[in-house]
Amino acid sequence: MTARERYERFDHLVRLSRALHGLGVCTLLVLPVAGQPVLEIRSASGVQVRVTVIRRYCGWVFTWRPWWARLWRRDKWVVAHADNAADIILAEVGE
Questions:
Q1: pLDDT confidence of residue 77
Q2: Which domain of life, per UniProt (predicted)?
Q3: What is the DSSP letter of 18?
Q4: Mean pLDDT per 10-residue run, the chain (95 residues)?
Q5: Residue 31 and residue 83: Cα distance in Å, rounded?
Q6: Are 27 and 39 in contact (CB under 8 A)?
């Protein structure tokens, strides 16, 4: 992964964090020494959800399911540049 891709990944997560904060959601940006950054949020039911950003054929997307769930739940992602990405994620994790 290039330095530009790492920066883009971080930038998308920070934008999402600010958008969720604007909706009244507490977020935590986790920057591990090894691995990719993750945005942690708590759903209305108290469940902790980890949002990651990955590159797909359509560009950068947010996904909030574990890696193994992505194999069979391909509809649990949203394009990172979508204006309503925070609203969509909040609606999904607030179930």
A1: 83
A2: Bacteria
A3: H
A4: 88 95 91 89 79 88 71 72 91 74
A5: 25
A6: yes
How far is the C-alpha of 10 from the C-alpha of 41, rounded, in Å?
Answer: 16
pLDDT for the residue 12: 96
* pTM of the predicted protein model: 0.84
Q: From CA 30, how far away is CA 51, in angstroms rounded?
A: 10
**Which stretches does DSSP call E strand in 1-95?**
27-30, 38-42, 48-56, 59-63, 77-79
Category of 59 on φ-ψ map: left (φ > 0), alpha (ψ -120 to 50) or beta: left
Among candidates 47, 80, 76, which has minimal Cα distance to 64?
Answer: 76
C-beta of residue 80 within 8 angstroms of C-beta of residue 12: yes
